[in-house]
Amino acid sequence: MSGLRERLQRFRGDAAVKPAAPSAAPAQPSLGERLRRLGSARVGAAKPAHTAGVVQRQTAVAGVGIPDDSELAGALGAERLADGVLRLAQYRPLALRHGHCSLDADPAAVRLFVPEASADPACWIAMDTETSGLAGGTGTWVFLVGLAHWRNDRLELIQYLLTRLDAEADFLACVRAELTQAALLLSYNGKTFDLPLLSARLRLARMEDVANDIPHLDLLHPVRRAFAPRWPDCRLASVEQRLLGHRRAGDLPGAEAPAAWLDWLRRGDGHRLQGVLAHNRTDLVSVAALPARLAAAHLAPAAYGADPLRIARWRLAAGDAEAARRVLADVGAAALEPEARYLLGGLHARAGDWSAALELWQRLDAEGHTGACEALSKHFEHRVKDPAQALAYARRLPPGPETERRCRRLAYKIRRDFGHCDGVIDLADEHH
């Protein structure tokens, strides 16, 4: 405080105050000593979540603060494969119900979504990961990988848990060895989240990424196709409740998994890891049970509250027009929205059922549906060869260059084929 007072007095011009004699400069610590002090200060301070991984990696490399996972393995019932890598195996009978669904593999259901998929469930692997953050990016660690295998009459659940950061190479080698056995991967949001993160960790560890070469059924996409317009969201927990009939009880939310893992790395506190493992296993079982139920919703959307129009468009884009027509026809025209009825009319026409197509289009035209009016104009012009009737429909289309060209072309055909017909041509000219 006295030094500050003296400096203020000098600043004010008080000559009576004499500056203190300079003291000898303290010896500067070496670079190594400064780095050691900096590392100690960082380890002792509270860390924000986004830097904790870097700090823990520093302490792991230095051999400081690494919790012993031997007792953790015993508490979890896991096998200790190496320092920092635990493996936990559990089984579920296929006859066990998950909600109101079984866990039986359904090759026909899977191949509805991935036609090239192997029909042998023994080659399938359902996968789910837990990570150090939900934002993604190369700074995000994959610390738990759950894998489900269909084994005769049971579902085998294998989980690999990373308990120290310097063991990541061994952890990834174990996961990679499992994935090399797969002919099909099943996941929920795996294409966007799980696989890109796992691929990034493999690249950082200079390991070959094998997962991207395996056919992959990401069940989030067919769920969104069928239910996005009908449900508030398409989270896996929502799918479990609405489609599988399963409601989780006492589940640790997935958003808390990163903090539970960091509790272990920072303080050796693994009491919440059991909840993380249980949450991951439930995810795996849901992914295993979902294909059969989801395929049933795509085949009979009305029975499951799915969107028949989006499903029919998907079947049509896949080149199966008859399947698309069947999806809509099974719902029934009375229960379909206008756009779905319009598509069904076009599918009837494609199949040669013109009476069914005309019935749908005429009803839609009476409701003011522009597409149906245009379809009727084309039908009478090109198939029935009745340009006068085609012009009557064309006159009701919205004004614009295309409508004008259509009406001029039809008026020309009427003059060419029948001579000047005042009642038709004058109306066409008046419209334009």
Structure commentary:
The structure is a single chain. This protein is of the alpha/beta class. The protein has 2 domains: 70-299, Ribonuclease H-like superfamily/Ribonuclease H (Nucleotidyltransferase, domain 5), CATH 3.30.420.10; 335-431, Serine Threonine Protein Phosphatase 5, Tetratricopeptide repeat (Alpha Horseshoe). The protein is built from 20 helices and 7 strands. The radius of gyration is 34 Å and the shape is elongated. The relative contact order is 0.08.
List keywords for this structure.
Nucleotidyltransferase, domain 5, 7-stranded mixed beta sheet, 2 domains, 432 residues, 11% strand, 7 strands, alpha/beta, Serine Threonine Protein Phosphatase 5, Tetratricopeptide repeat, single chain
Strands side by side in the biggest sheet: 1-2-5-4-3-6-7
Find the CATH topology of the largest domain.
Nucleotidyltransferase, domain 5
Described by the principal axes of the CA atoms, the overall outline is elongated
- What is the number of domains? 2
Q: State the major sheet.
A: 7 strands, mixed
Q: Give the % helix.
A: 40-55%
Order of helices and strands: HHHHEEHEEEHEHEHHHHHHHHHHHHH
CATH architecture of the largest domain: 2-Layer Sandwich
Backbone structural class: alpha/beta
- Mean pLDDT across every amino acid position: 86
Write the layout of secondary structure elements.
Elements: H1 2-12, H2 31-44, H3 49-62, H4 70-76, E1 79-82, E2 85-93, H5 107-113, E3 124-131, E4 142-151, E5 154-162, H6 168-179, E6 184-187, H7 190-204, E7 216-218, H8 220-227, H9 236-244, H10 257-267, H11 273-299, H12 301-304, H13 308-317, H14 321-331, H15 338-350, H16 354-366, H17 370-383, H18 387-394, H19 401-418, H20 422-431
Parallel strand pairs: 3-6, 6-7
Antiparallel strand pairs: 1-2, 2-5, 3-4, 4-5
